[in-house]
């Protein structure tokens, strides 16, 4: 059982994770290590963190309702591949040995951080694909990143924002709206599998989900007032520290 201080820590982590997801993605890089710090195994922390992010994404969508109306066709275009990729990743997570997942966690965290840091470079190298609206390359990349999200919840928003920003010539607010909608689809598909078959800890889910819902709405408000690149690099710095800690452990 968690004591009162641990519940407060998880509530704060859930709020911050929801806020970061509402800004630029990467909130799971806060919720996942918070659950690890509470003593949960990597697989349990990952599965539980995946469920806690859903209300944060929903809260972000409320804040981006105007932008969401403009990217609605993109959501419909990418919804099916996102759900399919998430389902594949979730099946792999729950059927593979737990120790294998634990061994690759530091690499996955570092990969998500690098993806966010390199988003601008990748985008410049894919100008042709962006001009064509992404094409098949966007569908393939979205399936891969959704499979990643189904396997490893931490960093999903970071990876997806990097992919969408690389293939699509849209402003950050529209990309965030699209990312939030697709992340909600990926998270919902994964949650279906995890609820039925995964080692979910429901008390942290309840605490962090409620806090994340408020954080997601607050993050959108913050995103409209603070330059996004500052917040993005803050998440990159935190992720680098986290990956180093995990490698050392």
Reported for the largest beta sheet, the result is: none
Q: Treating each run of at least 4 consecutive H or I residues as one helix, how many helices?
A: 13
* Shape label: globular
Taken together, the total number of domains comes to 1
SSE order in H/E notation?
HHHHHHHHHHHHH
Radius of gyration: 16 Å
Mean pLDDT: 80
**Helical content, roughly?**
over 70%
Terminal CA distance:
25 Å
By DSSP, the count of extended strands is 0
Low-confidence stretches: none
Output the structural class. Answer: mainly alpha
Proportion of beta-strand residues: under 5%
Describe the structure.
This protein is 85% helix and 0% strand. With 249 residues, the chain is an all-alpha fold. It has one domain. Helix 6 (98-117) crosses helix 10. The two termini are 25 Å apart.
Question: What's this entry about, in short?
Answer:
The chain has 249 residues and is mainly alpha-helical.
Features:
249 residues, mainly alpha, 13 helices
Secondary structure layout:
Blueprint: H1 4-23, H2 28-37, H3 42-63, H4 65-70, H5 72-95, H6 98-117, H7 119-125, H8 127-131, H9 135-151, H10 156-167, H11 172-197, H12 202-223, H13 228-248
Helix pairs in contact: 1-2, 1-3, 1-12, 2-3, 3-11, 3-12, 5-9, 5-11, 6-10, 6-13, 7-10, 9-10, 9-11, 10-11
């Amino acid at each position: 059982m968690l004591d009162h201080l641990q519940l407060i820590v998880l509530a704060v982590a859930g709020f911050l994770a929801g806020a970061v997801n509402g800004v630029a993605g990467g909130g799971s890089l806060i919720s996942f290590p918070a659950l690890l710090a509470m003593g949960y195994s990597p697989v349990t922390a990952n599965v539980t963190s995946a469920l806690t992010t859903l209300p944060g994404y929903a809260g972000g969508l409320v804040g981006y309702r105007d932008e969401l109306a403009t990217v609605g066709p993109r959501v419909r275009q990418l919804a099916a591949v996102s759900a399919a990729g998430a389902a594949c990743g979730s099946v792999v997570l729950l059927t593979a040995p737990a120790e294998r997942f634990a061994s690759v966690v530091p690499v996955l965290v570092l990969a998500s951080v690098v993806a966010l840091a390199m988003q601008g470079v990748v985008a410049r190298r894919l100008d042709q694909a962006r001009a064509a609206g992404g094409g098949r390359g966007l569908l393939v990349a979205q399936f891969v990143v959704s499979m990643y999200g189904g396997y490893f919840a931490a960093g999903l928003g970071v990876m997806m924002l990097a992919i969408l920003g690389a293939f699509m010539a849209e402003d950050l607010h529209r990309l965030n709206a699209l990312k939030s909608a697709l992340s909600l689809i990926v998270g919902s598909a994964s949650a279906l599998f995890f609820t039925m078959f995964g080692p979910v800890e429901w008390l942290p889910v309840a605490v962090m989900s409620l806090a994340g819902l408020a954080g997601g709405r607050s993050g959108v408000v913050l995103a409209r007032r603070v330059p996004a690149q500052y917040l993005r690099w803050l998440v990159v710095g935190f992720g680098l520290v986290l990956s180093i800690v995990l490698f050392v452990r």
